[in-house]
Amino acid sequence: MKSKRKVLLILGWSDPRWLRSISRYAVAAGWHVETRSFFTGTIPRGWHGDGMIVGQTFRKDLSEFTRRQAPQQPTVIIGRNNPGIQAPMVTGDNAMAGRLAATHFLQRGHQQFAWFGNSLLTTAQERQQGYRETVEAAGHRCHLLNYTTIPELRQDLPNRSRWLAHQLRRLPKPLALFTLDDQMAAETIETCLEAGWRVPEDISVMGVGNIELACQCSPIPISSVDLDPGQVLWKAAELLDELMRGKRPPQEPVVIAPRAVVARQSTDSLAITHPQLVRALRFLKENIARSFGIEQMAEAASISCRKLYHLFQRQLRCSPAEFVIRQRMDMARHRMTETQAPFRAIATGCGFGTVRTFNRCFRRIEKMSPRTWRKRHLEQSKAVT
Questions:
Q1: Cβ distance 320 to 299 under 8 Å?
Q2: What is the pLDDT of residues 263-288, one digit of tens each?
Q3: The model's pTM
Q4: How many other C-beta atoms are found inside a 10 Å radius of the C-beta of residue 140?
Q5: Cα 313 to Cα 157: distance, rounded to the nearest angstrom
Q6: How would you classify the pairing of strands 51-54 and 89-92?
Q7: Which domains, ranges and CATH numbers included, belong to the chain?
């Protein structure tokens, strides 16, 4: 019987979906995976194998072992926070995550923006940069709430919460706040609620990672950028497999694009104060399931179609027609993923009128049919469960 390749897994921090993805690949490839250091923190001294997958290691002794061990066999690093090893890297696109978060807020009419997190790590720096540059390119300022400049706040959560509340008190509202990750988003939401701010009406909060336990169990469910961690680990395992077979390593990091922003209650608010635009959006919300024209929206807002168009362009960065389609598409995607409703019911319930119109709009935006999109989403969901 052919012996299995032995692979060591060293992950100082990981998303639960990482393990499911690596398990699927290892079973298909016939690997034996050494996981004791991951589950028990044991340092596998004397280990000899064929390959190693390494994530960020926080313990000094485990980091030192990893640096000594990595040159002895093919090794792949997960993420940007390099533990001091020269080896091929697979990472999520952190800058794109920041850009997606900024775009999400801009499309909801936000004018005031902030970032909250730890900027010591490369991951944080890239997310912050992508967010800030997108906000500034749209003509706005991004306030940087960086607690790492104050060492005593790194582990002291009560003091950090008080510090954050003090910083937020000085910023204009409504505020679009992008945080380093989902855990920090949950921490931020608790701070906001304790200080008396409404989420998302006063402060909209976005995380990164789309970790269900953190996002769904927060006092306010958290909107988050899904970095597609299963695909990151799958690609890392695939790369390691190639290296163990003698293929030359890539010269640049392998970068995996995020899936999308998963919108939940923490950003479910439009930062609109113009009274006529508020009336137009109220009309849209009340009538989204039926067919109507832009003229009817303008009439509900007591303004001309021309002025309504300029209000949408200035406040929401799109035309009224584009915004209506965007809202209907958001509703349709939600129903396609959260229910088993047939496409005819989705089309009529979301205001598209007919399945043919729904299919045409969906293909234009998603570059695939609703049926293919739903099938892919189901396959991706099964891949990480």
A1: no
A2: 899 998 887 878 899 899 899 989 99
A3: 0.83
A4: 17
A5: 41
A6: unpaired
A7: 6-92+229-257 (3.40.50.2300), 94-227+261-267 (3.40.50.2300), 275-383 (1.10.10.60)
